[in-house]
Design a protein that fits this description.
heterodimer; A: seven-stranded mixed sheet; B: 394 residues; mainly alpha; 3% strand
């Protein structure tokens, strides 16, 4: 009996521990082997978030005028889940909807296709959001149409019309400022994947969600996190059938902050108009005048008061997503990128201030006479003056006034010789390139915009880099001899082959001709108009190259000051003080008695002396020269630097100069010979030192009367409130 | 270490050792005690985590935990008392305890006293919002009663008589019948396992055992066939086989429990961080489904520790049964072993989807005062059996 009892106890014990082992094995299987599946199921099943984006902050100009604000609009959305259950995938419903909205059925159905699926158009037309979300297909629908849709429910299954807050470009004084303000678009896949990689962002409640609308360019993009605020998130607990069983968490929205721009809307409108005028002037001379830029900067702190780019586009087309047709047109017109900050152009003679600074630093006498023949010959190459003028021996200041190339060729030639000439190594001195760097060329200005070009400085270093990058291609071409070109034009093929042979062999060498070209802003040198403005501002303020700013403060929607941007000095022009003084004393002469004289005839230069430099930069190929006019004023007490540039626009003086004059007239309140600050486009005759006032309800206090600039927006609001 | 005990039976003496009092703390099974305390503490932490979400809106979110801790303290006290009982006392009072437990078990049928929770009318309403589940105490009473009846014969070598076996089976069958009427299927299964294990270890002839197991299986089958079991009971018993087939009520619990546990992975989401637990997705996760909290928040590692601690408790129970110096002690220990083992397997097994869902708590871990007290009394009884052996060993 004892044995039987022992045996059975042993069996029971073994059974007990087998059961425990079973539990451990099953646990291991569930948690470790198939755990991932369950984790996904858990994430799916527990909670649903209802996200209401916060009201996006406004962008104000320096006087408090809203440049970008919000308004409500009737939006028509399509629930694809419902539509799918209709016959033929709801084709009839879409046709009816297209008819009532006055668009083609295709323009609606192409928006319903999720990005990346077969036959779907490219973003931003395709749908980037989640499968369960209704897709907006039309905005600013008139209330009558909305009512029809909502009343005939059986005709429009899955279609909803509702009110939604959308961006509005108030356009005071009709400003465009598209490249400054930027636009909104659906959050990009990149942003979402980047966020996925960051564990803290992945769980943050104000993280990006697939349906979020974010700033995609301009200030909207650069200051996106500031403007966006934090969304209200209600976390609902749901059971497996999707039924809401309770509220887990509720976070209220925090309204986005306001940007106070350094831009003055009234001035911006003048500058935009004058840029178009300059382009038209070029075209009137029979030149293409295909693009241009204009920049007005406060030389005392680097704040951009106005900045325009031609061609531009209407930023409002982004509201609600562009159509494929609009998007194509936009890409074709080349108007999406800003010529002021992204465009790269040969600076031409405006660059001579850099060469002058280099000469001063290298110990060249600034007050001696230099020879200005009509050309200089280097072997077979001839380096000419503009229109082959010759002035004999003239002082350096005069050389700047009349923009004599050969004087600067001479200076550059001497520098090249001193550096070792043909025997120089890649580390030999390169004074003009060094001076250009000090003026901020060849590197990003640091403006508060998401993209800008760094540009490049023609220099020994650049040539070596360039040769290293292109050598292989050059050498291949030198061997193959351009067989394609040879079929049609053997002479041209010979020419190309000869050049590539030379480049392949010693394309790294900083030749005498390179040095000469560099001195007058030709050759490989390329700058943005903004860099040019910042460089002239540096001459004006005694050598400080500021980082340009488009925003001077961030303010809360309640009117509190969140952050005031301080001026940042990017670099200092480290040349003898006497050299800066020489430049500042010489440049007014360009306007009063030199290449910049013509456009300023009749301007009260005695009251407001203007320092300037013209440029007519040669472009490779048969293109017309780039017209530059760089300046600052008043020359004796500098406040503003103004740069206007038109590509294929002819001379700086004829095409860009008159626009610069008009901008100064607006800035200083010039009428004929009289100067009256009260007539300035800037309220009070100067950029506002104080920040705008924001009322408790979030509306900014704007200048009164004709200075408000909101006439058009106001009348638009009135007409809308009547119809609603 | 406690001193060595002979593994053979030794019923030569029931004479007391002179140092009986002084040896209590020394002779206690400390491994058993410490493992049981450790798993009780872990359980309390899990109860805390599980009750946080439910109690978040209460004035004192910790009130549930506090009540649980009071239960634990009372349970430890009862366990101590149980460990201090002598065989003589137990023998004398077992019929009284059994009778009292049976009366308690019938109380839920009395209007205004009985409470129905989760379909089972197995609770008694007490003042102060407390409830008592008498079937928990019934498990102890059945173990003690069967042990007494099957060890009537002092001679350990002789097997129990037919009369002893029949009487002991009646002692088990009466409460089983009552509990069946209360729809508490889980407790019926546990009592069945206890009864079969005790009868088996008592040394009855094999044909008795075969007949008992076969008879139980037949009764269950007939009950299902005749529709004696309610539909939901059958559903509960079968839904675990295909939990994904039907996400409606019957399989909802099973599904949510497995999502919670599966989501835990190796190391879990961390205490208080489990979305399923804190989102209140798993029902009654402070009592019957407490293991899902461990699975989700402590992961495989933490859950393994809980199973391991329970395993140690069971190992000590088996060892105490093995080393018991008489049949009575062995049968008591065997009853406790079977009880804790099958209840652990059934409870964890149902959260893992390998056992049907029944409303029984996880020993030492689940919230629920009656259960906590009962299992700690069981630990006390194991200590009594061990101490008896220690006193009588040479």
């Amino acid at each position: 009996m004892v044995d039987r009892s022992n045996l059975r106890l042993a069996i029971l014990s073994i059974l007990v521990f087998s059961l425990l082992a079973t539990l451990v094995a099953r646990l291991f299987y569930l948690q470790v082997v198939t755990g991932d599946e369950y984790r996904a199921a858990a994430a799916n099943n527990t909670v649903r978030e209802v996200v209401e984006p916060a009201v996006r902050g406004l962008i104000l100009d320096q006087a408090g005028r809203p440049l970008v604000s919000n308004r409500t609009s009737i939006v028509v959305t399509v629930d694809r889940q419902v539509l799918k259950q209709e016959r033929e995938g709801g084709a009839k419903v879409i046709n009816r909807l297209a008819k009532i909205l006055g668009v083609t059925p295709v323009s609606i159905s192409e928006r319903l296709l999720p990005c990346g699926t077969e036959g779907a158009p490219k973003p931003p037309i395709c749908w980037n959001g989640s499968t369960y979300q209704s897709v907006p297909v039309a905005r600013d629908v008139d209330p009558q149409t909305a009512l029809t849709i909502m009343e005939k429910r059986s005709d429009f299954p899955g279609i909803t019309a509702k009110l939604e807050a959308i961006r509005e470009y108030s356009a005071p004084f009709g400003v465009n400022a598209a490249h400054i303000l930027g636009y909104l678009g659906p959050v990009t896949e990149n942003q979402l994947t980047e966020q996925e990689a960051d564990a803290t962002q992945r769980v943050a409640y104000d993280r990006f969600r697939k349906t979020d609308v974010v700033g995609r360019s301009g200030l909207e993009n650069y200051y996106d996190d500031v403007l966006r605020g934090k969304p209200s998130v209600t976390t609902l607990e749901v059971d497996t059938s999707g039924q809401v069983t309770g509220t887990v968490d509720q976070k209220p929205a925090i309204a986005g902050s306001y940007l106070v721009s350094t831009i003055d809307a009234k001035l911006q409108s003048v500058v935009e108009g004058q840029l178009v005028a300059a382009v038209q002037r070029a075209q009137a001379q029979g030149y293409p005048g295909d693009s241009g830029a204009a920049v007005v900067v406060d030389v005392r702190n680097g704040q951009i008061l106005a900045m325009a780019s031609y061609p531009t586009y209407d930023p409002a087309i982004w509201i609600g997503g562009v159509t494929q047709k609009q998007y194509k047109a936009l890409m074709k017109s080349d108007s999406l990128s800003s010529n002021a900050t992204q465009g790269l152009f040969a600076p031409g003679s405006t660059y001579k201030v850099v060469s002058t600074a280099a000469a001063g630093k290298e110990g060249f006498s600034l007050y001696s006479d230099y020879s200005c023949p009509k050309n200089i010959k280097l072997g077979t190459q001839v380096f000419r003056n503009y229109e082959s003028s010759a002035y004999g021996r003239i002082p350096l200041a005069r050389a700047l006034e009349v923009s004599c190339n050969t004087v600067f060729y001479g200076i550059a030639d001497r520098m090249w010789d001193q550096a070792g000439g043909g025997d120089a190594t890649r580390d030999s001195p390169d004074p003009i390139a060094e001076a250009a760097q000090m003026f901020g060329f060849g590197s990003r200005t640091g403006i508060d915009l998401p993209v800008e070009s760094a540009g490049r400085i023609a220099s020994r270093a650049f040539k070596v880099q360039n040769w290293e990058a292109k050598r292989d291609t050059w050498c291949e071409n030198a061997v193959s001899g351009y067989p394609e070109t040879r079929k049609t034009d053997p002479k041209l093929a010979d020419y190309f082959t000869a050049i590539d042979k030379e480049n392949c062999a010693d394309g790294f060498r900083w030749r005498e001709g390179d040095a000469l070209n560099a001195a007058i802003g030709q050759g490989d040198t390329a700058v943005t108009p903004l860099q040019m403005a910042m460089a002239y501002a540096a001459i004006a303020n005694g050598g400080k190259v500021y980082e340009p700013r488009l925003v001077k403060a961030v303010m809360g929607a309640d009117g509190s000051v969140v952050e005031e941007m301080k001026p940042v000095v990017k670099s200092t022009v480290d040349v003898p003080k006497s050299t800066m003084t020489f430049l500042r004393n010489s440049l007014p002469g360009v306007t009063s008695n030199g290449s910049g004289e013509t456009p300023f005839i009749g301007f009260p230069l005695d009251q407001i002396p203007i320092a300037s430099k013209t440029g007519s930069a040669q472009v490779t190929g048969d293109k017309v020269s780039t017209s530059w006019f760089a300046s600052y004023a008043p020359a004796n007490k500098p406040k503003y630097a103004v740069v206007v540039m038109v590509t294929q626009g002819g001379t700086g003086s004829k095409t860009s100069g008159p626009s610069v004059r008009k901008i100064y007239e607006a800035l200083f309140g010039v009428n004929g010979q009289s100067v009256n600050p009260a007539r300035s486009v800037l309220v009070g005759g100067t950029p506002s030192k104080k920040l705008p006032v924001i009322r408790p309800d979030g509306t900014p206090v704007v200048p009164k009367g004709k200075d408000s600039g909101v006439v058009t927006a106001q009348s638009r609001d009135e007409s809308r409130s009547r119809t609603e | 270490m406690p001193r060595f005990y002979s593994s053979t039976f030794n019923d030569t003496s029931m004479t007391a050792q002179p140092d009986r009092r002084g040896s209590f703390w020394r002779d206690l099974d400390w491994i058993l005690l410490i493992s049981a305390i450790a798993v009780t503490i872990l359980g309390s932490i899990l109860v805390w985590s599980a009750s946080r979400a439910d109690m978040a809106s209460e004035t004192d979110p910790q009130s549930y935990l506090k009540r649980h801790l009071i239960n634990v303290v009372v349970a430890l006290g009862l366990g101590y008392v149980a460990s201090r009982l002598s065989y003589r006392w137990l023998h004398a009072f077992t019929p009284v305890l059994y009778g009292a437990a049976l009366v308690l078990l019938l109380l839920p049928f009395v209007p205004f006293i009985g409470v129905t929770i989760a379909g089972a009318r197995a609770w008694i309403d007490l003042p102060g919002g407390l409830t008592l589940q008498p079937s928990e105490f019934m498990k102890i009473a059945v173990i003690l009663m069967m042990a007494v009846l099957l060890s009537e014969r002092v001679d350990i070598a002789s097997e129990p008589t037919t009369r002893d076996v029949v009487l002991s089976l009646i002692a088990a069958a009466v409460p089983v019948g009552v509990i069946l009427l209360q729809n508490d299927t889980g407790t019926v299964l546990i009592l069945g396992a206890i009864a079969i294990s005790i009868v088996a270890v008592s040394g009855v002839k094999t044909r008795w055992l075969v007949g008992l197991i076969g008879g139980s299986a037949a009764v269950v089958l007939i009950a299902i066939q005749l529709g004696l079991l309610k539909e939901y009971q059958v559903e509960r018993l079968t839904s675990f086989i295909t939990p994904d087939a039907d996400t409606a009520a019957s399989a909802y619990n099973a599904n949510q429990a497995r999502i919670a546990i599966g989501g835990g992975g190796w190391s879990g989401t961390g205490l208080f961080e489990g979305p399923q637990t804190q989102g209140k997705f798993v029902p009654v996760n402070e009592s019957d489904f407490i293991f899902t909290v461990s699975g989700e928040e402590l992961g495989f590692i933490g859950s393994f520790i809980i199973i391991a601690l329970l395993g140690i408790v069971l190992w000590r129970a088996a060892l105490i049964a093995w080393r018991a110096d008489d049949r009575y002690g062995r049968l008591v220990a065997t009853g406790v072993l079977a009880w804790l083992a099958f209840q652990t397997f059934e409870n964890i097994g149902m959260t893992l989807g390998i056992m049907p869902i029944t409303g029984i708590p996880l020993p030492f871990v689940s919230a629920g005062g009656t259960s906590m007290m009962a299992v700690w009394i069981a630990v006390g009884l194991l200590q009594t059996v061990r101490l008896h052996g220690a006193r009588t060993a040479i």
